[in-house]
Design brief:
alpha/beta; Rossmann fold; 4-stranded parallel sheet; binds beta-D-glucopyranose; 6-stranded parallel sheet
């Protein structure tokens, strides 16, 4: 109880400190996806904990370093931690440490959305606001806000790409499809897989798209920890069971919810003899460097670009609003129920990335250099 009172007093004191030093007051952000007008530096003496799931996947390194850089630019002290390689006890321990060392806000990209309930409850008891970053944290009312991309739209974009590339509305098919999604403990796959099936299910129902393995349930298509190796081995099993190959059973498309799973599937297909000339359609997400290289080499068809700079900037605005005691800008208060009610959210816009627009999207925007996505000789 005493602890709670202390935390409340602390937050009030912080709000006063902020207004006293003119902390970037009154910045009415336009309802835009790209925060253009960053708050003036305002975070002196305030510490923000940023908890990322792993360093083994490129995107989380970028998320972490963007968050740190942008928060520090606003004057916040930042405690950035990566939880080993998706190690849940490490993530919990790091969060407990952030709570006990005086972080005022926690920004968390959960490894397993259901395993942080207790630690987020403790943060709430200590008066610390929690922002769920990219992945929703389930079953606790300690999550104040959720910042992510429109995850259903990500899935729809992948489904639409397959629909349009196979020209499903104007050709008779049938076409063979297999499907891969991500980790069963990541709430995002409900939306990625669901969004893709919103588009593809009618064609599966009509028989224009056939899934020869019969594996169409989300659980059957899920890949633990979004692992490339597990995706590769599932694809190898499908190849063996269905006889897929350039001279075998025709495989027209593989829906992959993200790039790490797409890369595993691609390796299995290359090993089975597919080349750029006959490669099935492969979808992805993140525009990871290896996947951009695969797009250039004709072994991945598309990815969905989620600019981690935009998400980080959005979260910095949220942190700033919380610490000023104002309501952050939100654009979705209906979609993301974490089991305790809908968590008010801001959804950033994903964009389809292909070989035709990668230069504009990724190089001209300064996200990568051309050298970053040039295959080694
Ligand atoms: C993220 C994706 C990412 C995947 C694997 C998902 O929660 O939204 O961008 O590819 O996790 O890390």
């Amino acid at each position: 109880m005493k602890k709670k009172l202390f935390s409340i007093l602390l937050v009030i004191a912080m709000v006063f400190t902020l207004s006293a030093c003119g902390g970037g007051g009154g910045n009415n952000e336009p309802a835009s996806n790209e925060p253009s007008d960053q708050p003036a530096a305002s975070g002196e003496n305030l510490k923000v904990g940023v908890s990322m799931p792993t360093q083994s996947l490129q995107r989380w390194n970028q998320d972490g370093s963007n968050m740190k850089q942008q928060l520090e630019a606003q004057g916040y002290e930042v405690d950035l931690q990566y939880a080993g390689d998706n190690d849940i006890p490490t993530q919990v321990a790091q969060l407990e440490n952030m709570i006990s060392t005086g972080c005022q806000v926690l920004v968390i990209a959960a490894i397993d959305g259901t395993s942080l309930t207790n630690v987020v409850d403790s943060a709430k008891d200590a008066g610390i606001a929690v922002i769920a970053y990219d992945r929703l944290i389930m079953n606790t009312d300690g999550v104040a806000y959720y910042a992510t991309f429109d995850n259903t739209l990500v899935g729809r974009m992948q489904g639409e790409y397959i629909r349009d590339t196979l020209d499903l509305d104007n050709t008779s098919g049938p076409y063979n499809l297999e499907m891969f999604t991500g980790s069963p403990d990541d709430n995002n796959i409900v939306f990625f897989f669901g969004g893709a099936l919103e588009v593809l299910q009618p064609y599966i129902d009509s028989g224009k798209l056939v899934v020869p393995s019969g594996q169409t349930e989300r659980d059957q298509c899920a890949i633990q920890s979004w692992s490339s190796e597990i995706a590769q081995s599932r694809m190898e099993n499908l190849i063996a069971a269905q006889g897929y190959g350039p001279n075998g059973t025709k495989l027209d498309a593989v829906l992959c919810s993200n790039d790490s799973t797409a890369q595993g599937v691609t390796t299995a297909l290359k090993n089975a003899g597919y080349t750029a000339d006959n490669f099935p359609i492969i979808t992805g997400q993140d525009c990871d460097k290896p996947s951009v290289i695969n797009m250039k080499q004709g072994t991945q068809s598309m990815s969905v670009f989620k600019d981690t700079r935009t998400l980080a900037a959005r979260v910095v605005l949220m942190v700033d609003s919380i610490l000023k005691g104002t309501e952050p800008e939100l654009n979705d208060t209906e979609t993301y129920d974490n089991g305790t009610g809908v968590i008010p959210s801001f959804l950033c816009d994903p964009v389809v990335g292909t070989i035709d627009n990668y230069k504009e999207l990724l190089i001209d925007s300064g996200y990568y250099t051309e050298a970053d996505v040039t295959p080694e000789e």
